[in-house]
Amino acid sequence: MDIKTLRYFVEVVRRQSYTQAANALYVTQPTISKMLRNLEEEVGSTLLIREGRKLLLTHTGQILYDHAETILAELRELETALEDINQMNAGTLQLGVSSLPGVQIAGPVSLYRQRYPGIRVNIIEYDDAAAQQAVLNGTLDAALTFQPVDEQHGFASLPLFSYPLCAVVPRSGPWPAAQSVDLPTLSRYPLLLSSDAFAPSQQLLAAFTRLGLTPTVAVRSSQWEFLAQMVQAGMGIAVMPEPVCQKLDASTLLWLPLDSPLRWRLSLFWRDGVWLSNSTRAWIACCHEFWPAAEAE
Predict the structure, then answer these.
(1) Which of 23, 97, 106, 233 is deepest in the core (most CB within 10 A)?
(2) Which of 51, 82, 113 is the last residue of a domain?
(3) What's the start-to-end Cα distance of the chain, in Å?
(4) 3-state secondary structure of 118
(5) 127 within 8 A of 96, measured Cβ to Cβ
(6) What pLDDT score does 97 carry?
């Protein structure tokens, strides 16, 4: 049993496919299959059983998988530590993001690349739950989230920005005379909201529930431009963060402050209590420098 065998085994379990694991590891499928047969012979027990399209771990397989993940995570930490000997002239930053920060993180990424051109930045899209697990097992160095970070679960975090939410409405009807929109008024119109993974949308619906309001959600999308087009088409009212609104077509749309304490907050989080690579510490410093006032909000 060696590191390569453990890596093959873990990759097959994660991807639930011998073919996809082989592609990811740049080997042939027969190589993967033979390696795992040899591993089962070595441990003297079946590790995986197929049920339909799923690969299920046996009891022995689960024990081996848990220990293999720990071993591979520690190996990644060792490899990263050795990379740092090169004084930030080489290495990789694995950064998890959701689909929604978009250009909001372009500034700090640009600053980071200017300072450390030898560090490759891999930006990988994750939902919040998957990002937390990936940070804990070492697949990601850090991740961005719109959800509150529970530091009791092994994370440290840095608030990055906080902006108010606005109701995006057509430049017609009663809206040009309005100064803001409260939740009871908003609930009377079809709502055009961002995807379920977007924390302010979840919090907005929870706020409606606390007030005993039951609005109709007409459309959900992770694309701000699409939601704006739906407003222009008369489909309803969209709720967007203020910086996103500033990029909309002001000749056809209005954005009015939402009378609510809800805000668009983004935080960076990483695993607490473990050794952090120089590249990760430098990324945290760049974010802190780019949004210096965030922690005070």
Answers:
(1) 97
(2) 82
(3) 52
(4) coil
(5) no
(6) 87
